[in-house]
From TrEMBL:
Compartments (UniProt record): Cytoplasm
Annotated Gene Ontology cellular component terms: cytoplasm
UniProt cross-references to InterPro entries, sorted A to Z: Leu-rich_rpt, LRR_dom_sf
The organism's taxonomic lineage, starting at the top: Eukaryota, Metazoa, Chordata, Craniata, Vertebrata
Superkingdom field: Eukaryota
Pfam families for the chain: LRR_9
PROSITE patterns: LRR
Name of the protein: Leucine-rich repeat-containing protein 51
Alphabetically ordered keywords of this record: Cytoplasm, Leucine-rich repeat, Repeat
Keyword Transport: no
Length: 192
């Protein structure tokens, strides 16, 4: 990797945009042409995109099988992915592959079929995640949806396109104390 390639890898670059392509499986991205925007995508000498944004919204993806392998073929620096739009697909869970993208700061998952609220806690390992969308998933109907997400992901600043306020944080903490039992710690009797 040349220093110039690394310097050109930027969120300001247009996204690698595969939205509205009727993509069923991630592997299809390799043979599909991305949409072209107003500004052309920059590429490395090897022909891979230098963007940090990947848009896969409005497709029919039900899982992210082969995601790491495919993204490595498309992006010069897949480890720098900062924004992924997976909204309006058929995802039923938060794939563990998303938890390996430590530079991810924006993740759109709205309009999918995620039905277990506990899935959200997988994202707690992402240190830079600041913006997340989950509305339009079955989990949105669960009691305490917003509070659970804010408790599980204390670093996010925007949730479902709404800013997270101090009041939201306070409400989430109160909700947590009332609804999430702390893990019991067992003390051995002879240790006392």
């Amino acid at each position: 990797m040349s220093k110039q390639d690394y310097m050109n890898t930027s969120v300001q670059e247009p996204p690698l945009d595969y939205s509205f392509k009727s993509i069923h499986v991630v592997q299809d991205l390799v043979s599909e042409e991305p949409r072209t925007g107003l500004r052309p995508l920059k590429h490395s000498k090897s022909g891979k995109s230098l963007t940090q944004s990947l848009w896969l919204n409005n497709n029919v993806l039900s899982d992210l099988r082969d995601f790491t392998q495919v993204v490595s073929q498309l992006l010069e620096h897949p480890e720098n992915l900062a924004w992924i739009d997976l909204s309006f697909n058929d995802l039923t869970s938060i794939d563990p592959v998303l938890t390996t993208l430590f530079n991810l700061s924006v993740l759109y998952l709205h309009g999918n079929s995620i039905h277990r609220l506990g899935e959200v806690s997988k994202l707690a390992v992402l240190p830079r995640l600041r913006s997340l969308t989950l509305h339009g998933n079955p989990i949105e109907e669960e009691k305490g949806y917003r509070q659970y997400v804010l408790c599980s992901l204390p670093r996010i600043t925007t949730f479902d396109f709404s800013g997270v306020t101090k009041s939201d944080r306070t409400t989430a903490e109160v909700w947590k104390r009332m609804n999430i039992k702390p893990k019991k710690t067992h003390i051995k009797e002879n240790a006392l």
